[in-house]
Amino acid sequence: MNNYPEFSPQGYEIISELGHNFTGGRVTYLANKLTTKQKVVIKQFQFAQLDSNWAEYQAHEQEIKLLQHLNHPGIPRYLDSFQTEAGFCMVQEYKNAQSLASISRNWKPQEIKQIALSVLEILIYLQAQKPSVIHRDIKPENILIDEENKIYLVDFGFARSGGGEVAVSSVVKGSMGFMPPEQLFNRELTLASDLYGLGATLICLLTGTKSADIGSLVDANYQIHFRHLIPPQERGWLNWLEKMVEPNTNERYQSAKTAFTALVKINVNQLPKVRLSSNSIDLTAGEFREKVAATVTITNPIPNTILSGKWEVAPHPSDPPHTPYDHSWISFDTHKFEGNQVECKIIADTSKLLAEKTYQRQIILHTNSEPETHTINIQVETASQPKPQKMHYWSIGLLCASYPILSLLVINLGWLNSVPELSLRWFVVPITIILVFPALDTTINATATHKDVNELGSVLGVLLGGIFGLFFSSLTILLFSIGNSDLKIFLTTLIVLGGLLLGSEAGNYPSKKDNNLRDNEGGKGSIGNFVAVRLSFLIFQIFVIILDFVFLGLSCLFKSVVFQQIKRGIPGQNAANVTLLSAGVSLSLGIWLVVIYQFGQFLLNTPAKIQVSFYLIVGLIWGFASLVVMLYLLVNQAIIQPRKVNKLIAEYHQNEEQLIKP
């Protein structure tokens, strides 16, 4: 015998109890309508119970008002309502379905997607009402599913028509863990509010989390974390779920319609596929203790999927213990990534390794694809230990002193005084021109020949060409007693520019290709060709022949200094740089001496005009600046860099026992 209430006067016979909430004074029954034998659901609100309250009664009254205006196959229809001595009853259409909370099973992603689409269709209908209807209590208990996988949304007791702000004094209505932050704090509700509860419900199904335990997945910022509880799945599907439960309303899908449209395009059953640009990496260090790197391109050819992954270095007995995120000598520019075409740089720090050794390791790529892991073999060859470096400072000092000595000779022999009105002007003009000319000439040569061009040699050659051009122009004017000022300027300009051109080309003579010095015969051939071409210009032929021998001598001098450094362990490229910088310092110092001499001449002879001498000012500034720059570069190359190398060698021997073995 049962204690079911008697509803026959109202035309209903109770079959069984479906559920109850004694605290709220609510009981749900399955009943038959006596006249039609149709099964119905009767929700009884027992407001006469001691613990019940009128707020609950108002919720039922509000639910009735809403249901009377709703007509959707996913919402059980309102049929009737009546009062009893114990309370108030509402009659609804019966659906032979179970709540998602009552079903214990492993839901497949495709099944969860179909549930999501069905609920979203119901929400689209509710949001299309005028005003929109917000359910406010979407959770597994309020979503039913029948044997044909049809979905029904029930319990509209907390539903509201329209959004708007809720009074501060109002009681928060909803279920903890399924309410969005704006509902929890009685803020304005929007069309996005119900999406949070639906997203949390779907996460419960995906992770097997019970409704009462959903709070364990929510952090202090109301963000739900669930990826660690599930196997690899389609990235777009997981992104969609995360966007559904974004705490910030603006970051969530703005309506059920936009969420539905985004989900339809996602194939939750299809996993990405990994294609690697290479299954092995070979790295060779060109310098001692340098970092070497290689780039691996990862692509996913499967449409409508998003690949995500993370890197890990496989354990090796010779390596110190490490975590997946921190390896002792192998690192990644991007440890985690997401995308369908990603370039990842793998970096090996050979400063932790022994010199002249080969290391073989494996790096593992974990992805949301099938298979989940992909292995890449990596081989690293370390560079040999450099030889201790000791510069041949005697030859460098001799080279640095050569041009100042030449400048002193120029001053003492009176070459600059041979044409007083032109000497300083045409000494500084070539200096100004060479600031632009070497760059243009070097670029043209490099573009035309597709060969390496010695930029520094070109600059020095132009400097020399300018000085020799000035000397020969003065000599020509004196020898041929040219008195016309215009003719003097013309000849001086012509010869100085010729010297610049010849100097630039000659400066390229000791240039290197593939970091190797050319042999002497190749250099002579180049100068021979250059002389043959210039012989066609009668005005230059005498000076060119003289310059040819001068440049041959300079070339031999440069090479001698270079080889002296190489014998002492200095790499060929560095030795060449030091030699050319030494020549540059020498040249700058020589020019500075000449300018200082001219400055003294102005003070002695024409003190009234010194303030208007633009060329003198330019010469002073340029000479000092070039000297400082050249000195800085030379000290860095000849002193600081060798000391750094020697320090590295000492540190290597000191820590050799602690370095990682192959």
From TrEMBL:
Catalyzed reactions per annotation: L-seryl-[protein] + ATP = O-phospho-L-seryl-[protein] + ADP + H(+); L-threonyl-[protein] + ATP = O-phospho-L-threonyl-[protein] + ADP + H(+)
SUPFAM superfamilies linked to this entry: Protein kinase-like (PK-like) (SSF56112)
One Pfam family in the UniProt entry: Pkinase
GO MF annotation list: ATP binding; protein serine/threonine kinase activity
Limits of the Protein kinase domain: 12-264
Annotated TM spans: 393-415, 422-440, 460-482, 489-511, 531-558, 578-600, 612-635
Transmembrane found in the keyword field: yes
Protein name (record): non-specific serine/threonine protein kinase
Organism: Gomphosphaeria aponina SAG 52.96 = DSM 107014
